[in-house]
C-alpha cells in the first residue's frame, strides 16, 4: 500500500468518523426511545419535585458542602503548617493524617463520624455537625497538600523581604505567605469544592428528616413515589447547576493567575 | 483524487452500522434471558434464579460467614430447586426493588425482601400469593417512657426508606420528626446510638434485634394487616405461576412450617 503520509492521515480520520457514526447509529437503533422518554423525561413527575428540590434539597447540598469545605479548609491550614513545621513529630502526624484520609472512601469516613462518634461518646450528634466534620476531614486531607504546595510556591524573596523589615516568622507566614499562597491555589481549591459537592450525596447514609434531605436522598425518595427515573435526572441536573459554574470559575482563576504551575496533591509525592 | 478514499470509507458506514446493530440486537435478546430448561420461565442469568433483596433484614435475609441466609432465602431456594437452577442473591437498595426498576433493567428475576404487598407497589411489580403476615412495631430504649407512637411528639422517629413503616409513620406520627434511613442496619444503629428516640419497622426483624440488644424493647405493635409477597417483573406470569405453586406445595407439605420454625422459633399461627 503506497499511500502518502497525508493521505494516510486522512483515511485514519475518516475511519474515526465512521466509527463515531456507527456507534451513534447502534445506540439510536437499539435504544428503546419510548421507554427512555417515560422513565427519564416524565414532566409531571419533574413538576411535582418543585419547588422542594431547589428550596430544600439544593439548599441543603450547598449548606453541607459549605460547612464541610469551611471546616476542611481550616483543618487543612493547620495540617499544612504542621507538614512544614520544624518539629519532626508534627510532620509525622500530618503525613499520617494525609495518607490515611486520602486513602479511605469518603463514605466510610461519613459512617464512622455519623454513627461512630455518637456510639463511642454516647451523645447525640446533629446531622449538620456530623457532615461538617466528616466532609471536612475528607476535604482537609486533599486541601492540606494543595496548601503546602501553595505555601512553598510563594517566592522566597517575599519571606526574606518581610523578615528584613523586622517581621517575626509567624507574622511573615500569616500576613505575607499565606495570603499569596491562597491566591495561587484558588483553582485547585475550587476543584476540591466540586469534589465535596459530589461527596455530600453520601449524607443519605446518615438518615435524614424531610427538611434535611439533600439532592441525592431527595431524588431517591421521589423515585419511590413515582414509577420513573426522572427524579434522578432532575437531581443530577441540580448538581450540574452547582458544579459547572464552579469548574468555569476554576478555569477562569487559573487563566488569571497566569497558569502558574504548582504541584497539586495528585502530582506530589508525600515525603515521609 | 483526494476525495476518492473519503467516498469509499463512507460506503462502508451503513454496512458497519448494520453489522454492529445486528450485534447489539443479539446481545439484547440474550440479555433478556436464556431459556431455563424446556419451556420454563426466562431468567436474566442463565442457570440462576437471581434474587434482589436488601440486606440486612434479619431473620428474613442477612449475611453470616460470607453467606446470605434467612427465611426468605430458604423459600426462594425451594423455587430455584423447582426450576432446577441455583439461587443467586443480589443485595440492592429497597427503592429499586419496589419501584420495579431492578426487574425492568434485568437485574433480577425475583425479589424476596420481606416486602409487604401494597396496591402502590402492585402498579410497578407483580406479587406472589402472600407468604407471611406482618405488623409494624415500635422499638425504643428501655425506660425511655415511649410506649406508643403518640408519645413521639417532638422526638426523632427513625424509619427505613420506601418501607410500609415509613408510610405508617408519616400518617400516624404527625408530631414526630421523622428521620429516613437507607436500610435496617443504619436505622437500628441510630436507635442504638440515640440519634433517634425510637424506630419503626416490621415486627419480625425488630423482635429478632431485641433478642441481642437487651437494653431495647419492642413497646408496641400496630395491626396493619400486612402480608409479604415475592415480587417479579410485571407481566412475568410464567415465573409467578411457579412461585405460587412452590409456595402452595410447601404449605401443604409442611415444609413451610419447618422453615418458619427454623427462623422464628415457633410454628406459624395459621396456615
From TrEMBL, chain A:
* Cellular location(s): Cell membrane
This protein's major location comes to: membrane
What PROSITE patterns does its record include?
ABC_TM1
- Listed GO biological process terms: amino acid transport
Pfam families named among the record's database cross-references: BPD_transp_1
A molecular function GO annotation: transmembrane transporter activity
Give the matching InterPro entries.
AA_ABC_transptr_permease_3TM, ArtM/GltK/GlnP/TcyL/YhdX-like, MetI-like, MetI-like_sf
Give the CC-aspect GO terms: ATP-binding cassette (ABC) transporter complex
Q: Does the keyword Cell cycle apply?
A: no
Keyword set, alphabetical order: Amino-acid transport, Cell membrane, Membrane, Transmembrane, Transmembrane helix, Transport
TM stretches of this protein: 12-33, 53-82, 103-121, 232-253
Q: Membrane topology per the record?
A: Multi-pass membrane protein
User: Residue limits of the ABC transmembrane type-1 domain?
Assistant: 58-250
Similarity-based family: Belongs to the binding-protein-dependent transport system permease family.
Q: Which PANTHER family match?
A: L-CYSTINE TRANSPORT SYSTEM PERMEASE PROTEIN TCYL, MEMBRANE COMPONENT OF AMINO ACID ABC TRANSPORTER
Entry protein name: ABC transporter permease
Q: Name the species this protein comes from.
A: Actinophytocola xanthii
Automatic annotation (TrEMBL), chain B:
Q: Does the entry feature the keyword Hydrolase, yes or no?
A: no
What organism is listed for this UniProt entry?
Answer: Actinophytocola xanthii
Q: Which residues form the Solute-binding protein family 3/N-terminal domain?
A: 48-267
Spans traversing the lipid bilayer: none
Alphabetically sorted, this entry's keywords are:
Signal
Name the record gives this protein: ABC transporter substrate-binding protein
The organism's superkingdom is given as: Bacteria
Q: Where in the cell is it found?
A: Cell envelope
Family indicated by similarity:
Belongs to the bacterial solute-binding protein 3 family.
Q: Which residues are the signal sequence here? A: 1-21
Amino acid at each position: 500500500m503506497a499511500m502518502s503520509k497525508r493521505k494516510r492521515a486522512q483515511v485514519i480520520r475518516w475511519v474515526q468518523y465512521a466509527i463515531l457514526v456507527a456507534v451513534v447509529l447502534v445506540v439510536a437503533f437499539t435504544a428503546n426511545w419510548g421507554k427512555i422518554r417515560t422513565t427519564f423525561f416524565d414532566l409531571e413527575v419533574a413538576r411535582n419535585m418543585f419547588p422542594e428540590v431547589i428550596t430544600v434539597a439544593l439548599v441543603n447540598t450547598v449548606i453541607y458542602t459549605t460547612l464541610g469545605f469551611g471546616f476542611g479548609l481550616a483543618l487543612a491550614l493547620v495540617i499544612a503548617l504542621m507538614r512544614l513545621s520544624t518539629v519532626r513529630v508534627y510532620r509525622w502526624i500530618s503525613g499520617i493524617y494525609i495518607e490515611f484520609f486520602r486513602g479511605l472512601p469518603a463514605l466510610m469516613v461519613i459512617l464512622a463520624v455519623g454513627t461512630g462518634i455518637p456510639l463511642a461518646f454516647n451523645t447525640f450528634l446533629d446531622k449538620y455537625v456530623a457532615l461538617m466534620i466528616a466532609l471536612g476531614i475528607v476535604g482537609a486531607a486533599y486541601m492540606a497538600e494543595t496548601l503546602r504546595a501553595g505555601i512553598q510556591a510563594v517566592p522566597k524573596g517575599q519571606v526574606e523581604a518581610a523578615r528584613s523589615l523586622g517581621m517575626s516568622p509567624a507574622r511573615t507566614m500569616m500576613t505575607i505567605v499565606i495570603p499569596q499562597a491562597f491566591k495561587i491555589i484558588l483553582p485547585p481549591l475550587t476543584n476540591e469544592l466540586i469534589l465535596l459537592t459530589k461527596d455530600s450525596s453520601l449524607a443519605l447514609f446518615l438518615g435524614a428528616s424531610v427538611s434535611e434531605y439533600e439532592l441525592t436522598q431527595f431524588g431517591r425518595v421521589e423515585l419511590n413515589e413515582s414509577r420513573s427515573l426522572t427524579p434522578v435526572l432532575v437531581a443530577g441536573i441540580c448538581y450540574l447547576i452547582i458544579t459547572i459554574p464552579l469548574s468555569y470559575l476554576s478555569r477562569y482563576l487559573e487563566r488569571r493567575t497566569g497558569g502558574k504551575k504548582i504541584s497539586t496533591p495528585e502530582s506530589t509525592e508525600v515525603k515521609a | 483524487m483526494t476525495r476518492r478514499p473519503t467516498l469509499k470509507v463512507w460506503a462502508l458506514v451503513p454496512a458497519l452500522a448494520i453489522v454492529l446493530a445486528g450485534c447489539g440486537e443479539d446481545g439484547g435478546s440474550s440479555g433478556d434471558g436464556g431459556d431455563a430448561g424446556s419451556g420454563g420461565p426466562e431468567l436474566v442469568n442463565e442457570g440462576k434464579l437471581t434474587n434482589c433483596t436488601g440486606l440486612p433484614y434479619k431473620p428474613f435475609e442477612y449475611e453470616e460467614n460470607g453467606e446470605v441466609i434467612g427465611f426468605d432465602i430458604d423459600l426462594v431456594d425451594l423455587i430455584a430447586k423447582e426450576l432446577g437452577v441455583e439461587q443467586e442473591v443480589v443485595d440492592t437498595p429497597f427503592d429499586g426493588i419496589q419501584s420495579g426498576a431492578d426487574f425492568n433493567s434485568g437485574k433480577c428475576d425475583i425479589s424476596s425482601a420481606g416486602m409487604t404487598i401494597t396496591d402502590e407497589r402492585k402498579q410497578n411489580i407483580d406479587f406472589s400469593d402472600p407468604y407471611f403476615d406482618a405488623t409494624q412495631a415500635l422499638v425504643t430504649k428501655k425506660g425511655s417512657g415511649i410506649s406508643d407512637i403518640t408519645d413521639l411528639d417532638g422526638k426523632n422517629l427513625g424509619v427505613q426508606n420506601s418501607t410500609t413503616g415509613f408510610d405508617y409513620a408519616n400518617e400516624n406520627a404527625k408530631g414526630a420528626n421523622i428521620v429516613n434511613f437507607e436500610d435496617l442496619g443504619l436505622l437500628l444503629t441510630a436507635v442504638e446510638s440515640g440519634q433517634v428516640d425510637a424506630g419503626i419497622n416490621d415486627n419480625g426483624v425488630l423482635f429478632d434485634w431485641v433478642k441481642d440488644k437487651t437494653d431495647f424493647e419492642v413497646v408496641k405493635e400496630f395491626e396493619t394487616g400486612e402480608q409479604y409477597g415475592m415480587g417479579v417483573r410485571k407481566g412475568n406470569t410464567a415465573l409467578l405461576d411457579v412461585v405460587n405453586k412452590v409456595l402452595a406445595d410447601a404449605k401443604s407439605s409442611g415444609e413451610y412450617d419447618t422453615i418458619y420454625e427454623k427462623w422464628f422459633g415457633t410454628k406459624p399461627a395459621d396456615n
